[in-house]
Amino acid sequence: MHNLRQFTVPLQRYMAMMDLQERNERLFYKLLIDNVEELLPIVYTPTVGEACQKYGSIFRRPQGLYISLKEKGRILEVLKNWPEKNIQVIVVTDGERILGLGDLGCQGMGIPVGKLSLYTALGGVRPSVCLPITIDVGTNNKKLLDDEFYIGLRQNRATGEEYAELLEEFMSAVKQNYGEKILVQFEDFANHNAFELLAKYRTTHLVFNDDIQGTASVVLAGLIAALKVVGGTLADHTFLFLGAGEAGTGIAELIALEISKKTDAPIEETRKQVWLVDSKGLVVTSRKESLQHFKQPWAHEHEPVKELIDAVQAIKPTVLIGTSGVGRTFTKEVIEAMASFNEKPIILALSNPTSQSECTAEEAYTWSEGRAIFCSGSPFESVEYDGKILVPGQANNAYIFPGFGLGLIMSGTVRVHDDLLLAASEALAAQVTEEYYAKGLIYPPFSNIRKISANIAANVAAKSYELGLASRLPRPKDLVKHAESCMYTPVYRSYR
Ligand SMILES: O=C([O-])CC(=O)C(=O)O
Ligand SMILES: [Mg+2]
């Protein structure tokens, strides 16, 4: 840590950490676990975003497996080249929508690498069973195509049948090589592929889309916890999203599902409490024909509204959630409006990395006179307002996916069911203690993440056994203990 702290530029720390991961894996994980709050922003959001943007020029050696269009017809063979034979989790991207940074092509590899290092550090999944994969079908990022250091195929993205065939070959090769219970986490695919891939493979493979389902589970957990601070039930709230992509519609659906389960109202009804704004304005019935299919369930009866501020005024949400990937869109007017009709407005600026956040913590607190319950996707420092220190929460997927994955693996779960996501949310929310509520916090600190992950894993596994999706029998009696006993822990002997 002493050496690492000599570097003042976050990207240099990132590079030093990547070198360490290569040179001494145990020390890498020991450091990451013992200094998680300090190092998470380095190996993960926001620095990993910058690393992906500059991946070509900071490249030293490949950290994962690249599968390109050129390997079509030989993907199984390529998988067999990876030195580890026993793989349990794959995180795969095609780099088309890296965080809120857009198409970074092959340089998106930083994301699967970073996510899997959190599987190990936060969720205790052994490093040797993790495989980062980037599928290279080209990039439409002109700047990268012209960059002499770009590491991927220099062509525009393959689409349509060519793309679908490559993905199909990949998914079947993965199952053939690693078996039925290999967990495949889709990460940072563009909307137009993400929903389709999830729908296509969720019935035949153990797949999980972190941007749709992981984000949803984390945000739902925060909202369940927030009820303790603001009162009422989820059903009493009205939700407005800016951004109707993977995160927005994924969160919206899980909220509607949870309310439906709690109130016995049909989901078609509970969806009406959730409103989405996309780049063309409020998603309303009159736009239905022209909407992409994943937005259609959210087209409600309302006159057209173009601007976010007007939608906020018209809908009067209690919860405002930003998932647009576009920074600085929660303006002073928007936050002030939220604060004018809510005693404690819940404001979640989820877009990553920090540069894409819909507003800063300071803006949310200042413009709401210190009353907002604010969380962001990427971390923000505490803010002093009116003599008080206000601590923003980080509503980041990293709370859920490592524990969620551990729960699936340790129970031998064969398919991901939405109820498992709800189980993960409830387990995370249950980790927020009175002490945190009193400070207005709706997420526990990352310093407790290993314990949190064990609890999430246990609750997910319990639900999986209950639903008959878990193949590892007999079911352990104490699932929290079992989760802890499964977790990889880098230990050093003390000679003192
Ligand atoms: O990586 C993160 O911090 C969360 C995430 O999945 C994304 O923004 O795509
Ligand atoms: Mg992502």
Give the helix/strand layout.
Elements: H1 10-23, H2 25-34, H3 36-43, H4 47-53, H5 55-58, E1 65-68, H6 75-80, E2 89-93, H7 110-121, E3 130-136, H8 142-145, H9 160-178, E4 183-186, H10 191-201, E5 206-209, H11 210-230, E6 239-242, H12 246-263, H13 267-270, E7 274-278, E8 281-282, H14 308-315, E9 319-322, H15 332-341, E10 346-349, H16 361-367, E11 373-376, E12 383-385, E13 388-390, E14 393-394, H17 401-411, H18 418-429, H19 434-438, H20 449-466, H21 479-486
Parallel strand pairs: 1-3, 2-3, 2-4, 4-5, 6-7, 6-9, 9-10, 10-11, 11-14
Antiparallel strand pairs: 7-8, 12-13
Bound molecules: oxaloacetate ion and magnesium ion.
Residues 45, 99, 188, 210-211, 352, 377, 396-397 line the site of oxaloacetate ion.
